[in-house]
Amino acid sequence: MSFNLKPYPQLRDSGLPWLGQVPKHWDVRRNGCLFAQRNDTGHEELPILEVSLRTGVRVRDMDNGMRKQQMTDRSRYKRAAKGDIAYNMMRMWQGAVGVAPVDGLISPAYVVARPFLEVNSRYYGYLFRTVDYMQQVNKFSRGIVSDRNRLYWDEFKQMPSAFPPSEEQTAIANFLDAHGRRTAHLIRNKRRLIALLNEQKQAIINQAVTRGLDPNAPMKPTGIDWMPEIPAHWEIYKIKQIAHFNPSKSEGASTFSDEDEVVFLPMESISTTGIIDCSQRGKLQTLRNGYTYFRRGDVVVAKITPCFENGKGAYLGELETEIGFGTTEFIVLRAQAKINPIFLYQVMMLPAFRRGGEMAMTGAAGQQRVPISFLKEFTIGLPGLQEQQEILKFVEEESHKSEQTSGKAQKEVELIYEYRERLIADIVTGKLDVRDVVLTLPDADESLEDLEEENGDNLLEDDVEPEEVEA
After folding, report:
1. How far apart are CA 147 and CA 141, in angstroms?
2. How far apart are CA 223 and CA 221, in angstroms?
3. Between the CA of residue 20 and those of 9, 137, 161, 331, 346, what are the distances in Å?
4. Which of 78, 136, 269, 397 has the fewest CB atoms within 10 Å distance of its CB?
């Protein structure tokens, strides 16, 4: 996606170190000359809007259980008209700012800025989310302590911003919108490739773990719906026959002291591909009573939705301390003599295991959990240890091939994002001129924001700040 963009022919010093030189015909104005504060309440019939760190302002999905929040009286929410700028006072420096896509309601703790006639808010939606501008936001914010700093309206309106002519603001916004759609189309294709590679890898693993490596091996019936037959020389076991569950914390009492530091694994420290982050530590006396215990070589499986369905779990062969503790939302399995613990982990990742566990979940919506009884009664076919090792070697080799290709595609996605971020910064600050190319850039079918929202791309758990109401 190269458009042969060129610098503006004539530049001048903006007088702002972060902005540097700007086109000679551009101005610099304070935000108070570009926007007026909107404090319009009482429109309870409008949809609720939320401010996302990645995708700006969007309509809140009220049916999404992960995003439901206890909300204050809607009559106190501020109306943001379509095209208004809305920002989270505490997190604008991280990118929690954007343009309202429709008329809606914004938290009373946020700021709504109405653009004046000569202002295209879409241009400023891009400018305000550049790295250099967000650093200025941090400087203008104030509070008792730095991590509670807020950008109040009185400070926001004093901030200087670039001000291109109105028609040029629109040209820039149109170009970046169209470029975003093109970027989204490219990223979608890369992600489809990654998804296909992951599906192929999972199919290979599933075939190997449930039917072995010999396609000509004699088979026997099992009477199990999800696994109707297995190699004739395999045995059938319930998981409770080949693994212990949730080993006792007392087993290490004589070996470790209260002052020993051990690894602590919250849910976010385990990936859906089985990678563990051992960077968090805690003293044994602090962790012993309130958390789940495990030992190096155990297998952990998340039991709460949606972590279970997403494949959160790991073989703890690389646990950096001999024992450790983690969230109480883990079930711990310890392989007995008949099963290799890595093979046990692969069984826990089987699609049939995940589907069955999802159907067995109990509890309130959004807090459902897989009962340990499901894991204990889950039935599998199991080869001997030597064959398990051969299967695991094959799975590792095939997974490595797939992961090399998907890793390359993922790196390309990251580079596309980096390129777009740099391009946006260069265009909205007047380093590159798009005036002559905007009409030749065709549309695509989707926007980058839609793609990010659909895929949850790099979204943090706290991507949307919980509602605050000022006293």
Report:
1. 10
2. 6
3. 15, 17, 12, 56, 55
4. 397
Domain end (from 359, 382, 405) = 382
3-class SS at 26? coil
**Residue count (the chain):** 471
**Residues in the chain with pLDDT values less than 50:** 65-70, 439, 444, 456-471
pTM of the model: 0.74
What does the pLDDT look like over 210-269, one tens digit per residue? 999 999 999 999 998 899 999 999 999 999 999 999 999 888 667 888 899 999 999 999
C-alpha span between 223 and 229 (Å, rounded): 8
Q: How far is it, in rounded angstroms, from Cα 450 to Cα 338? A: 49
Last-in-domain residue among 348, 382, 416? 382
Q: Which residue has the tokens 């505490």?
A: 90
- Report the distance separating Cα 401 and Cα 206, nearest Å: 16
Q: Where are the alpha helices (DSSP H) in 291-445?
A: 307-310, 341-348, 351-360, 372-377, 385-428
Alpha helices in 74-152 (DSSP H): 121-127, 131-140
- Whole-angstrom distance, CA of residue 438 vs CA of residue 179: 10
β-bridge mates for residue 276, sequence order: 270
Q: What angle do CA 155, 158, 164 make, to 5 degrees?
A: 130
Whose tokens are 């998907």? That residue is 406
Same domain, 261 and 377: yes
**426: Cβ–Cβ under 8 A, 6 or more apart, which residues?**
432
Q: Using CA atoms, how far apart are residues 79 and 200, in angstroms rounded to an integer? A: 48
Over the stretch 15-34, which tens digit does the pLDDT of each residue have?
A: 999 999 999 999 999 999 99
Three-class secondary structure of residue 83 per DSSP: coil
What pLDDT was estimated at residue 147? 66
Tell me which residue range forms the domain holding 419: 1-6+164-212+388-461
